[in-house]
Write a structure and sequence with these properties.
By secondary structure, the protein is mostly helical. The protein is built from 17 helices and no strands. 78% of the residues lie in helices and 0% in strands. The two termini are 33 Å apart.
């Protein structure tokens, strides 16, 4: 057969892909590269702000710490309710356009924080920003689906690795500003975050517009609220998502207040966790490409969370070197659970959602994980810090049970689906 194109020029062999693409460090298609770059820029800005927000509001704006906590909590709660309606708008009007405008609104809201000085104006700016962030997440779901295409599973994992890498870079940048501890340094972080949203929007504008997927005849306007199986999966995933705060919130308090482990483990835990996610998330997601495999991944994650939390809990009262070993083992095992949970969660939220309503389904799933982030500190203080070792084991047992029942709930959700089509 006659060869043509690059194959003919290379003696019939397929052209060799660049090394970065072959190693999975850079996506192959141009739209995938664009969305990955926008994700990195966005997460750099957001990560910088998250690290320094409390210091900015207390040391530059001059708000009491109690008001800062109240304002950020109220804003996070308000943002939970934007995902479903804006996700529906993205389904019907196109995800790229809606996501782009949500990024612009976040940039404007962040810039407002440089100008306001009173608690109520700060609260308004934070609420606007959180509403746009939650809404943008719902619109981003169908955008990722459209850009990921046939490589959706791998591409979702790749984006998460990119986000974690950006978060690490942001923490380093914020650390320099905190070390300077000056008004100009903190203002630079806030303005940098505002500019990152605008820059991300400009990058997203380079993506081709994705036409909405036509809804089937007589499709419900708010289908997700009637999909009991998807609601149940969202609830289970929300409970499991509390684990995200274990290493960031509960473990530092546990190391300092209840163990003889060296204090440098507080910082090392986050670094090890982030490094493992960046390096292994794509590999951990291989094979998790349907709802059955996703249910199994969730089950494995529940086992890993229980074992990891047990190892960290039992470090209390041990000699320094044994406590160090126990906590390090716990961090590694817990992170493996996080990798499996992420792979399963991402697959379920996309696979169980009908193609024509990805946005509103992503919005509901975001509500579950967002609510988990709001309540996680209180839950972890109650179980892990106040109750001690039994609380760590009980909460780990909750994760174990949630993971164990998830495959059965997934099968039920599959049987009760109203629409049988799968995302492309």
């Amino acid at each position: 057969m006659e060869q043509s194109g690059d194959g003919a020029e290379n003696g019939g062999k397929k052209p060799t892909k660049p090394w970065l693409i072959r190693r999975g460090l850079v996506p192959e298609s141009r739209p995938q590269k664009i969305l990955a770059l926008a994700t990195f820029v966005n997460m750099i800005g957001s990560g910088v702000f998250m690290v320094s927000a409390a210091l900015y509001f207390t040391r530059v704006v001059g708000l009491p710490l109690a008001q800062v906590g109240l304002g950020m909590g109220l804003a996070a709660g308000a943002g939970l309710f934007a995902g479903v309606p804006v996700g529906h708008l993205a389904d019907r009007r196109g995800p790229r356009e809606v996501y782009l405008w949500m990024l612009v609104i976040q940039g404007v809201a962040m810039a407002m924080l440089v100008l306001v000085q009173s608690f109520w104006l700060v609260l308004v700016a934070l609420c606007v920003g959180e509403l746009a962030r939650s809404a943008g997440g719902a619109a981003r779901g169908p955008l990722v689906r459209g850009v990921g295409g046939a490589e959706l599973t791998r591409y979702r994992a790749y984006l998460r690795s990119v986000a974690n890498l950006a978060g690490s870079c942001a923490a380093v940048a914020a650390g320099f500003a905190v070390q300077l501890d000056s008004r100009p340094a903190y203002l630079a972080l806030v303005l940098g975050n505002a500019l990152s949203f605008v820059a991300s929007a400009a990058i997203i504008a380079a993506l081709p517009s994705l036409p909405p997927v036509p809804a089937p005849p007589k499709a419900s306007r708010w289908a997700v609220l009637k999909d009991r199986g998807y609601v149940a999966i969202t609830a289970l995933d929300g409970i499991m998502s509390i684990h995200h705060q274990v290493l960031l919130f509960a473990l530092p308090l546990w190391i300092v207040g209840h163990t003889d482990a060296p204090r440098w483990l507080v910082g090392a835990a986050a670094l090890v966790n982030t490094a493992l996610v960046v390096l292994l998330q794509v590999r951990a997601s291989r094979g998790v490409d349907d709802s059955t495999a996703a249910g199994r991944a969730m089950r494995r994650s529940g086992v890993a969370f229980f074992l990891g939390m047990a190892a960290m809990a039992l470090a209390a009262g041990l000699p320094t070197w044994l406590a160090l070993v126990g906590i390090v083992v716990g961090i590694f095992v817990h992170t493996v659970g996080e990798l499996w949970h992420t792979a399963g969660s991402l697959e379920l939220r996309f696979t169980l959602a009908p193609a024509h309503a990805q946005g509103q389904y992503m919005g509901l799933f975001g509500f579950g994980s967002g609510l988990a982030n709001v309540i996680a500190p209180s839950v972890l203080v109650l179980f892990c810090i106040s109750w001690g070792v039994p609380g760590w084991l009980v909460l780990g047992g909750v994760f174990l049970v949630v993971g164990a029942v998830t495959p059965s709930v997934v099968r039920w959700a599959e049987r009760t689906r109203q629409y049988a089509e799968q995302p492309a």
